[in-house]
Amino acid sequence: MTYKGKLVLAYSGGLDTSVAIPWLKEQGYDVITFTADVGQQIDLKATKEKAMMSGASKAYITDLREEFVEDYVWKSLKANAMYQGTYPLNSALSRPLIANHLVRVAKEEGAVAIAHGCTGKGQDQVRIEVCAKALNPDITVEAPVRDWHFSRDEEIEYAEKHGIPVPVTKASPYSIDENLWGRSTECGILEDPWAEAPSDAFTLTVDPWEAMDEPVVIEIGFEKGIPVSLNGKVMSGVALIEMLNQIAGKAGVGRVDMIEDRLVGFKSREVYECPAAVTLIGAHKALESMTLSKEVLKTKKELEVKYAELAYEGYWFSPLREALDAFIDKTQEVVSGVVRVRLYKGQATVVGMKSENSLYREDLATYSHGDKFDHKAAVGFITVWSLPIKTWSQLHGKKACCEASKVIGME
């Protein structure tokens, strides 16, 4: 076996990356693992110990929760980014962050390559590799799971052969990815779109029909599009998301079950649970409807689709995404206020909002006393607004009527 040098592996402690360590060592690499703490509910100390036990020469555990929220989640929230209008991008948003630090650690360690545990069918391979190449065009990327062509059961057998404990079994084969913004669950029965996702596939949310019988009403404070308080208490981004995940999760809010068009060309059944994300995006959209003009809202909604696609497809470190951020940040200068949300049996419903920048004026909208709308002005407005269609009808209307009469046999 030829020694190839140091390699930095993005390590989650799950099945794929656990078996990747001995396999990469068999290829001649000195394996260093890097684990990003982005709010996943795992024992990070145990994860580090397992990496070392599996054969890593060094194991990094880095708390990236604040960076994840400030530089990725909040940018996505301001864009209301949801892939295909449904998926809040919880896994997708963590990939550029992980790629950024993989490249950093590789430089610090003098490593010749980085590696990930993605399969050849997933989009994460694209996200990590494209982002890594954007940051270091000359970096070498290894993808052991993509290269070895093991089935899931064969991976489990390989792990057992090498004495590596893994958090899955043949009886419970879920593949899970989790961070502050949500949780993704794949494999097993979830691959059958006819089968309802079982309760044991969820951990952040209770079954909506089992949720508490009384609704919970919360108030979320925003400043320039960013959530800054919950029920009047100013909180850091990390703390606010953690708290909201608990509150909304207990109400069964945030489950997403969809057929998703994967970047690599096929459809996949995907199950997510994102209590905080679903609640905050809904509240943010509502506040924008009150504070942004009609034309800004219309244009922003069109660009939000592109923003979500860029994040999903691995183009986070692209000039277009940075340009969209500039536009979005400008729109968010006035998106400040408080949104009241009712959480109940799987639903997060906006039931009130207020803002000093509100474009809603009760004296214009009311049909009661105090109405200041100039009703007489409507006559001139309709005259001007109808002029194009009136002119067309004057020129072509009679001919069009005759043609229509022929079609229905009136002549």
From TrEMBL:
Protein keywords: Amino-acid biosynthesis, Arginine biosynthesis, ATP-binding, Cytoplasm, Ligase, Nucleotide-binding
Predominant location: cytoplasm
Catalytic activity, EC: 6.3.4.5
GO cellular component: cytoplasm
Keyword Transcription regulation belongs to the record: no
Domain Arginosuccinate synthase C-terminal: 174-391
Enzyme class: ligase
Residues given in the record as ATP binding sites: 10-18, 36, 117
Top-rank taxon, per record: Bacteria
Binding-site list for L-citrulline: 87, 127, 175, 184, 260, 272
Arginosuccinate synthase-like N-terminal domain residues: 6-165
Recorded catalytic activity of this chain's protein: L-citrulline + L-aspartate + ATP = 2-(N(omega)-L-arginino)succinate + AMP + diphosphate + H(+)
InterPro entries assigned to the protein according to its UniProt record, in alphabetical order: Arginosuc_syn_C, Arginosuc_syn_N, Arginosuc_synth, Arginosuc_synth_CS, Arginosuc_synth_type_1_subfam, AS_cat/multimer_dom_body, Rossmann-like_a/b/a_fold
GO biological process entries: argininosuccinate metabolic process; L-arginine biosynthetic process; urea cycle
Pathway membership: Amino-acid biosynthesis; L-arginine biosynthesis; L-arginine from L-ornithine and carbamoyl phosphate: step 2/3
MF-aspect GO terms: argininosuccinate synthase activity; ATP binding
Compartment(s): Cytoplasm
Known partners and oligomeric status: Homotetramer.
Family note: Belongs to the argininosuccinate synthase family. Type 1 subfamily.
Name of the molecule in the record: Argininosuccinate synthase
Organism from which the protein derives: Thermanaerovibrio velox DSM 12556
Gene transcribed to yield this protein: argG
